[in-house]
Amino acid sequence: MSRLPSPIAAGLLAGCSLLAAEAAAQESTLPLTTVTAKGYAGEDLQTPLAAVSLSRDELLARGAANAGDALRGVPGLAVASDGPQGQNPVIRGLKKESIALLIDGMRVNSAQPAGAIASLLSLGLTDRLEVVKGPASVLYGAGAMGGAINILTPQAKFVPGAQISTSVGGDSTSDALRAAAIANLSQGDHAFMLGAAIARIGDYRSPAGEVAHSGYDSDSFIGQYRFRIDGSQQLRVSLQRHRDDDVWYPGSAKPGTPPALGTVTVRAPKQERKLAEVGYSRKDSGTLNFDVRAYRQEVRRQIQAYAAALRRNQSETDVTFTTDGVDASANWLAHPQHLLSFGVNAWKMKAAPERYLNNNPPLFNNHVRNDPFRDGKIDALGLYVQDDARFGQLNVLAGLRYDRIKGSAESMSNGAVRNGLARSDHATSGSLGAIYEVSPLLRPYANLSRGFRAGEMRERFEASPRGDGYYYVGNPQIRPEKATQFELGLKGEDSRFSYSLSAYRSSISDYITGRVTGAVNAGLPVKQTENIGRATLKGLEFQGRWQVLNQQWLTAAYSRIRGENDDLREPLFQMPADEASLGWQGRIAGGWSGDATLRMVKRQDRVARIFARGTENATAGFGTADIGLTYRWTKNSLRIALKNLADKAYHEHLTEGLSGQEIQAPGRSLALNWQSNF
User: Which sign does the torsion angle of CA 511, 515, 519, 525 carry?
Assistant: First the structure.
């Protein structure tokens, strides 16, 4: 059921709709830059690794509901889904546990039994979405073994007066309404940025019919104040809050154990993320730039297992994951063509989930406390140095990092286990890459990188039944997994053509996963956290854009990945399918422009059989077509898009659900979006 927007969100949106001021001059076209790949703004064409950057305009044009949805179809990226909110990005076959998720460069930590913490910020408040593909542990430490995703929000700017940006949109398949507003207010040495967004999303319709419990509500708020000490120094305070209500994860639905429970589905009546940051920066034309900040990020989740036959919950969990962190970084321009950067990252994550079970058949009404673990903590400390040097046409990027990770808990298995719950690990990460400019259209590069991830709290300490029908057995002594990736690629760009091509091979040791053992505990199948040994990932990615006529562009993309469980000599569990896309973008007449995209996904029949024990099956291939029209006038734009034009029935291979009964993707949908700047 939808609820009214929060007073703060409603008030800001209403206020922004009444304000008007002169807009700032539009920025000139610049080469694609990212801040996540190097830790500071750098041109992609001078960076020897694969990265993705989507601007605010691109995100709104895609009509995506969240970060995972926005990255669908991008080469090297996929989405693991258990529902519309639970769209988890996958980088080169590695899932959420192997990806560092950052918001404005600050780590978001949370165990993720269902849903996606990457969805805990409205895209309407996102300025840019950046992805580093491949090990990024040199800059981001534990968890960045597969890469990093950085969701960047607008920053308060010292632009005199007031600037307002608004967007309103929706789609027909879920009767969704989304609205966002961002304001920048500045006078003298003071600058404020305020933003708010709301979303009211109904159950969506697939070609097979309405998908029950697929709707939810969300509110987001962001704010920042900056004080300019002088021309090079600034202080900042940032606050963020996001809340989702009445979220269900239809892909989690499974027959209950015992059968008297009926179908059991995981849901989250409330989940919330809060962020507070204070920071200081020094940036000038000299040789040393410096930034330091302290932050607290909280992710609170209410996770319940709803038993259809009982018409109430079989289990209820309430947990807050609190991360306190300090980051300090500096860039030293040792030479006009030689930039050294170094820094330290320290954070502590803690959680104490409270879980209640109804586990007394046939009544299922005893509501007993059964905490998976108590007072779990993970402490991390990392130090890094990076060298970015240019020698004529050659750019070299080298980095080295040392991390110490310690995990501990007071108890696990509802207090039954109190010993052997602490483990400390040390890890060294590194990267070495080079890119050479033969010509603007020919820039070969090579990169060798090493990353790691230590076990997260659920993998270490959880020992209890969960709403997905398994009895989880954590492993406090789980070893960190490590990945070494070698990548070769080409990049190029001129006024008519741009492209990137990469091939990579990644070897993973001590691969961490949850294995269905075949054992039974408390009547439930056991899923044990284990280091299974070695795994290998190999892939090929391409994307290009070509101006065939004046203001007429053709696009193409391709992605292929192969994952192998080297110990069992079979395909790695849940690997994305091969896919390709073709597209057109161009000006039609006046302020009108159009676009069309054909996405083709190959049948995925390379599935894990020994490891999965029947929980992964082949997925049929499919093709979808999207078309769109955009009209721009003065400081406004209106976009109309038709998605899944042929109303194709399909689901992605990484969609969660019982094999053969996965939820279908949305059917044909008409999407509208209006943007305006004042």
Answer: positive
Compute the C-alpha angle 676/217/126, nearest 5°.
40
Using CB atoms within 10 Å of the CB of residue 365, give its burial: 0 to 12 exposed, 13 to 18 middle, 19+ buried.
exposed
Helix (H, G, I), strand (E, B) or coil at 663: coil
The helix/strand/coil state of 193 is: strand
For strands 622-633 and 394-408, give the pairing: unpaired
Q: What is the largest CA-CA distance in the chain?
A: 76
> Which segments within 72-215 are labelled E, that is strand?
77-81, 87-91, 99-103, 106-107, 128-133, 147-152, 161-171, 176-187, 190-201, 205-206, 209-210
Give the separation between CA 411 and CA 418, rounded to whole angstroms. Answer: 5
Give the length of the chain.
Answer: 678
What is the Cα–Cα distance from 582 to 73, expressed in whole angstroms?
Answer: 11
Which residue has better confidence, 189 or 520?
Answer: 189
**Burial class of 480 by CB neighbour count within 10 A (0 to 12, 13 to 18, 19+):** buried
Question: Best-predicted range by mean pLDDT among 331-335, 432-436, 461-465, 632-636?
Answer: 432-436
How large is the average pLDDT for residues 127-142? 95
Domain boundaries 7-677, CATH class: mainly beta
In the chain, where the domains are located: 7-677
C-alpha–C-alpha distance, residues 622 and 602, integer Å: 7
Close Cβ partners of 552 (under 8 Å, ≥ 6 residues apart): 584, 585, 586, 587
DSSP E strand stretches across 308-441 = 312-335, 338-351, 354-357, 368-369, 373-374, 376-391, 394-408, 411-412, 423-436
Secondary structure (3-state) at 669? strand
